[in-house]
Each structure stands twice: as C-alpha cells, then as structure tokens.
Amino acid sequence: EAQVTQNPRYLITVTGKKLTVTCSQNMNHEYMSWYRQDPGLGLRQIYYSMNVEVTDKGDVPEGYKVSRKEKRNFPLILESPSPNQTSLYFCASSLWQDTDTQYFGPGTRLTVL
Amino acid sequence: QQPVQSPQAVILREGEDAVINCSSSKALYSVHWYRQKHGEAPVFLMILLKGGEQKGHEKISASFNEKKQQSSLYLTASQLSYSGTYFCGTVPGYQKVTFGTGTKLQVIP
Asked: Which of A79, A111, B46, B102 could lock B55 by a disulfide, CB 3.0 to 4.6 Å apart?
C-alpha cells in the first residue's frame, strides 16, 4: 500500500530535550516536505527536499533541522524544542513539487512543556 | 505569501451548494485543493493547471482564473461527508506549494 508513515504519532516532551520525528514514504517520490499546522494559520511549510542530499528552507524553518540521506526518509529534528513548537506536524511526499498530488502522513501531535 | 481563502467558515444544510474562493497575489502556475477531516491528514481533491480545463471530482468541481490569480471550489448538493476543512495550495511558476489558512465547512442534516 502506497503510504507516508510518521513516528511517533503523539509526543509530549520538555523544553530543550532533543527529539526526532521520522517520516518514510514507499512511493519512490522525489519531493518531500514537512508542515506544521496551527489553529487559524493553516499548513505552513518548515523544510522541503527536492531529492537526496538536497534540502531547503520553507516558510517557518527556525528551530528545525532536516536531513535526506535516503530517498524514502526525511526526518525532522528539533535540537532544542521550545513551547512555541507545540503543534501538529505533517510530512508529505510527491513525485514533483508543483504539479503532482501530495500524499500526507497521519500527523504527529507534539507538545513541548 | 499564503493565498487568501474565503469564507473562513461556512455551515450548510444537506443538499445546499457552496463556493470556496482562493486568491493569490502572485501569478500562478497551478492550484491544488485538499480536504482535511477532523483529526486526519489532508487528502488530495484536485489540481488545476495554467491553461488547463476545469477539473471535477464527483459533485466537487473547481475553476482557475489565471488572469485574476484566483481559483474557486464548487460543492454541489452537499453531503454530510463533505464536512471538513478545505485548503487551497498555490504554485507560482515551478515552485513549491503554499497553502492557505483553510475554510471550515460544516454540513448539517
């Protein structure tokens, strides 16, 4: 089954404790991205990747890191989480960035205390 | 720059029609529409390309006015299953998708 998986689905952590949210897709997609969703603000892009070893900042990249060492995986790293990073996070992948369907993962609800 | 969606929220009775608008300040290459049900991930509805035809998906269709940099999503004879938040995503010329803030649609019996 074609899908995007994320782990964990729920996470409660404390300020400053490094964490990683994993994202994996099995569709051989070139393009992957991370979004955060906050009430009233819609989906805002954090980082995206056009291909292996190619990543770039989205609209709200501060406080986040990503890596793309393999085509299928695109982890999101919060090296020193803060309460303003409490949000719902989605990973997405697509064949191309501009004309193709984006497939979203199930989401990760993160709470930083 | 996020596209602007209107209305922000709408309540419909089953069988009624609705229009959701999406407007961008930039020239657009494509417009994407997604629906997100409560507690779930966004799901693709359709993509409209510059110079392309109006797309349809069952009773949901959309148009793309390239000159006005606007797109509209039309939901006809709404069903309870149409409830959710609708997002448009705009693409200004071979760039990444930028999503709007969403339109919350509630269909009541």
From this structure: B46
